[in-house]
Automatic annotation (TrEMBL):
It comes from Thermomonospora umbrina. The lineage of its organism: Bacteria, Bacillati, Actinomycetota, Actinomycetes, Streptosporangiales. It comes from the Bacteria. Signal peptide: none annotated. InterPro entries: AB_hydrolase_fold, Esterase-like, Mycobacterial_A85_antigen. The chain crosses the membrane at residues 6-26, 38-66. This is S-formylglutathione hydrolase FrmB. Gene3D superfamilies: alpha/beta hydrolase.
Amino acid sequence: MQLTSDAFVVLLTVAAIATVALTVWLTPKVSGSGIKHVLARLGVLVACQFVIVLALAVGINSYFLFYSTWNDLLGTTSGPVKLERGRGTGAQPAKPVARNVSEMNKASGLHDPKTDGRIEEITIRGARTGLSLDAYVYLPPQYFQPEFAARRFPVVLTLAGYPGDPRNFIERQELPKTAKDDTKAGRTQPMIYVITRTTVAPPRDTECTDVPSGPQAETFFAQDAPEVLSATYRLAADHRGWGVLGQSTGGYCAVKLAMLHSDRYAAGASLGGYLKAVKDATTGDLYGGSKLVRNDNDLLWRLEHLPPPPTSILLASSKVERDFPQARKFASLAKPPLRVDTLFPDDGGHNFGTFRRLTPEIMRWMSAQLKAG
């Protein structure tokens, strides 16, 4: 009979009940004052309590499984322990990805890497999510200069909106040129910009969300991308050297990543982004019908109901933007340790003209938040 079997527990329970009944029946018969009667009464009581305690111990063991077999209880379990190895590879260090010099260097006026910097093209493949994304990487001139050979540079993940074309940051907003000129003038420190889109599962707009039973976009940007980038470039090892910048949908993603993953991103900057969780024809149901998941992705809700994260946020939006009220409310709700700075010009629409006008100031703000090394 097994130690934890129901039959054994029932047997001992019945025995305990029977012992109690027997004790009640025998006690009057051994009620005399002689030594034999005293010993008899003591024996009856000890036997009764032993069976009751034994029944309780077996019942408790059967429920919590402290000992699963008689050998386990008696300490006689023996025999070799054999490890069965699975087929997976387990945790593996990320490997550097192929770096290709972009054809966009010439059009951007980047001729000599040591004086102008360089744009490269890479593909980021996520080990955790299985997602992949092409990206442009702007490396500052210092990255190629011998005196900076040991330096680990701050990095800014730069996200286009939905559906988004990251080339707009390079061609229309002239991000590499601004970075080069501002660094040369001492307005910003040398930083690396990884320029990509938020659309990791086209044509769906995932809003950088870990979709239940769907694409794990948030994990891709919070874990997969930083791991691959760190294996490929000399990037700051500490989270204080990592920032995320985005416009429109990318702005929402930037603030969300900085808030939910302040251990990875020390700063997030939104250019014309919104702050509430959305659901429309391009997103589908991102939250699996769960109000809890939707609230978790609603940045205004998080500020109103959860402790503020230790990160820095910049909200840049003209006062005539449709989502400006969200930005103003978000800023008003901010409490330490969260820091929220704002850039609210009086005019300007949701267009590249406004984006280009505000981008340099956002880059300077980001430079002030991040640390090299």
